[in-house]
Amino acid sequence: MGVWVMGTALMLEPHAEASAVFEAYRGERDAVRRSHLQVIWLLLAGETPATVSRVSGFGARWIAKLVGRWNAEGFDGLGDRRRDNCGAAPLLDTAGLAASAAAPLGKGTPAEFIAELEYHVIRSGSA
After folding, report:
1. pTM tops 0.70, yes or no
2. Residue of higher predicted confidence among 10 and 63
3. Which of 23, 80, 86, 104 could link 32 by a cystine bridge, Cβ 3.0 to 4.6 Å?
4. What helix, strand, coil percent values describe the chain, rounded to 5?
């Protein structure tokens, strides 16, 4: 079954009938997975992506992403995947963190640093 999302025809793989997706939607307790099932159910039932967007609150790109996940993995492709995303790699390793913590904030004594800071604040008119 094809749907148009963002000007592109997307085909929904027939992993299940609309009625089976509806039953899974009705029985789902996880809110994120439930909303994903709702999107797929409505598309399988023949609703337009514009209607699905209005009902679900999801944008066209997210609906297209859910269709892609449905096509690739069926029911297993839906649901919250954030807990499996550990984020980006740290910018500094342990040695880099230690080096940055040991680096001085300014030259000279703390009193000289504060005096220079005050000078720049007064000069900029922020004080």
Report:
1. no
2. 63
3. 80
4. 60, 5, 35
